[in-house]
Structure formats: C-alpha cells, structure tokens
Amino acid sequence: METLRVELGERSYPIHIGSGLLDRLPSLLPPLHGKQILVVTNTTIAPLYLDQVVAGLTGFKVDTLVLPDGEQFKTLDTLNQIFTALLQHRHNRTTTLVALGGGVIGDITGFAAAAYQRGVDFIQIPTTLLSQVDSSVGGKTGVNHPLGKNMIGAFHQPRCVIADTDTLNTLPERELAAGLAEVIKYGLIRDPDFMTWLEGAMPALLQRDPVALTYAIRRSCEVKAEVVGADEREGGLRAILNLGHTFGHAIETAQGYGEWLHGEAVGAGMLMAADLSCREGMLSTAEVQRTETLLRAAGLPVRGPDAMSVETYLDKMAVDKKNIDARIRLVLLRRLGEAIVTNDFSPANLRATLAHYSA
User: Fold this and answer.
1) For the whole model, what pTM was predicted?
2) Of 182, 232, 252, 280, which residue is the catalytic one?
3) What's the pLDDT score for residue 309?
4) pLDDT tens, 276-317?
5) Does the structure show a pLDDT above 70 at 359?
6) What are the Cα distances from residue 244, in Å, to 82, 330, 349?
7) How large is the average pLDDT for residues 94-103?
8) CATH number for the segment(s) 2-170
C-alpha cells in the first residue's frame, strides 16, 4: 500500500492506494465522530463489494442504500433518496457516509454529506479508474441538471480515500479506457515525463498490470493533490484540471447523460483543446498528433459525435462553471505539460476546431 496526503490544513486527508485494501478497512479508517454509517453504492457494485465493505465496518451501526447505476441518475431526485435514507434511519450529525462506487456515487454521496445537517463526514471508496485518479480526490461534489453538468454542488473534502486496485479487475474495458483519459490529462497539464511514461506503458495498463496501474494512480493522485492543496476552491490554478472538460461536458449534456462516458467525452475534448492550442500558435501539429496517438492507444474517441453542430457545442459550452461575464474560458496547452486557463482566443479558431472534430 502507498499513502499520499492532500494537504489542506485541518481538512487534510490520506489517499491509500494498493491491493486488498477492502480487507483492511478497520486499519485504514480515520477516527470517526459517531457510530452511524450509511454506505451508498449502486446496483452494479453492490453484488461485488458491498458485503465485504459492511463486514469491515465492525463496531458501527451500518445502513446501506443501493442506487441505480448510471450518469443519468446523478440528479437531485436521486440525491433526495440519500436524504430519505438518512432520515428514515435517524442518522444524526455525527454520522459518516461512505461512497462505494465510481464517480457518480462519489459525487452524489459527497454532496449529500455536504448538505445533511449542514455537513457530515464522508469517506471515498472509489471502484473505477476514473474515480480513483480524479473524482474521489479534491472535494468536488454535486449533481447534474438537464441544462448543465455538475452545476449544482459543493466543495466538501472526504476524511480519507481508499483506492483498492483489485476493484479494477471487474471494470469493463470501456470504463477502463474512460479512466485512462483522466490519467493522460495529468501528463498533458503538468508532467510531460509522465506522458512519456504513459506512451510506453499503455499496453500494460490496458492489460491491467497491477504495477503499472498502481504507479499511474499514484502519480495522478500526486499531481491532483498538489494542485488541490494550492487552490482548493478553484480560484485559479485548480481550473487546469478541467482540460478538455468544457468540450466534454458539452458532449455529455447534448447527447444525454450516460450516452458518452465522462472519460470518453473528456478524451475527445482534450484533443479539441490541443487542436485549438495549435491554432492559437502554442502547440505544434506534431504535439497535437502525439496527443491523438496516445488517446487512440488508450481506446478513446478522438472526435465528437457526428450529430453535434458547432452551434450546439457553443450553446452547451456557454453553461460552464469557469465562464465569467458570459465569456467562455478554456484550458489550453502552452506546451505539453503546461496548461493555462484563458478566454483570450480567437472565436474563429474555436469554431474551426469544433467544425474539424464534428464534421
């Protein structure tokens, strides 16, 4: 097992990464304020790991809630099911919520924890690669709205993150590739050496080599922990973690949540960001091609849906948390390994990029 820390003063917490961690829960749990726990999971994960997790929560009064699986259920209605379960089982303000699942479960459970009795503790047990390297770390929680993804939520840090790499053995190939999009992101925005490593290690990652996966997860979490520690509430630096996300969220919103996996949409979005960076005179065409080659090697889409028009992209991109004064702000690449957040780009170049990847 390897342990990293997200340094946020009194809200600092560990990220435990390794094999067999679900069997070691009692030794990994932080001191909890009370004896009540609600484990929130979904219909896919519950048959695989719920009993194992509950068995490890010895000495606590444990209730469980199994939600439907899918991005389309990341809604206020589903959030209310968590509140109903907490109230029905009379959980008080010393309760702890445990998010057992992928990014949807982590985001929605964390938001419930942020709001229930004005804030209770929660623990992340991510079971997908995407959630282990990205969504479980950093305290972003929330739900989707038909008009925009993740526009309703709160910053609420977990008490700890327990990433058991064994759970990736049951992950469908499409979900594994989606998680690799976020892994690639860290190389593109902050660590060119990591990107080079990924180019050589991609076959091992796709074969779920445990050594390669553990290193990829650890390095991804290290980068995210550094960025979150410097800018917890996305006042500046943290926004670089959204490379490709403005394009990707537009795809997810336009296509209907769940049609494209989040990582798939982000993968296509990162290539669009690279292309626009090239049109703006920052990246070379060779660097854009290198980015595309790595995304293809991971099994990710390298273009958006054929049915999406430029105007649809622009309409959806106008609803984004980074935007200020109705101006679209994007994460672009000054070079591979260095990202910037800017609204200083040519609208004509943006349209050209969108047309190129949707025509």
Assistant:
1) 0.95
2) 182
3) 95
4) 999 999 999 999 999 999 999 999 999 999 889 999 999 999
5) no
6) 31, 8, 16
7) 98
8) 3.40.50.1970
Helix, strand, or coil here: 338?
strand
User: How far apart are the C-alpha atoms of 135 and 129, rounded to whole Å?
Assistant: 10
Are 269 and 251 contacting, i.e. CB atoms less than 8 angstroms apart?
yes
Angle made by CA atoms 229, 233, 236, in degrees to the nearest 5: 85
89 is catalytic: no
d(CA 177, CA 200): 16
Contact (CB, 8 A) for 12 and 6: yes
- Asked about 338 being catalytic, the answer comes back as no
For β-strands 36-42 and 96-101, DSSP reports them as: parallel
DSSP 184-235: HHHHHHH-HHHHHHHHHHHHHHHTT-HHHHHHHHHHHHHHHHHHHHH-TT-S
Superfamily of structural domain 173-358: Dehydroquinate synthase-like - alpha domain (1.20.1090.10)
Q: Is 224 one of the catalytic residues?
A: yes
Do 173-358 and 2-170 fall under one CATH topology? no
- SS3 at position 123: strand
The answer to whether 113 and 122 have CB atoms below 8 angstroms apart is yes
**Is 149 known to be catalytic?**
no
Supply 190's token pair.
């902050």
Catalytic residue among 16, 74, 149, 224: 224
Concerning whether 262 is annotated as a catalytic residue, the answer is yes
Q: Structural domain boundaries of the chain?
A: 2-170, 173-358
Tokens of 45: 């994960």
Q: Which of 159, 185, 238, 279 is catalytic?
A: 238
In the residue annotation, 33 being an active-site residue is answered as no
% of the chain at pLDDT higher than 70: 99
Tell me, yes or no, if 140 is annotated catalytic. yes
**pLDDT tens digits for range 232-287:** 999 899 999 999 999 999 999 999 999 999 999 999 999 999 999 999 999 999 99
Q: For residue 210, what are the CA distances in angstroms to 17, 165, 169?
A: 11, 7, 10
Is 234 an annotated catalytic residue?
yes
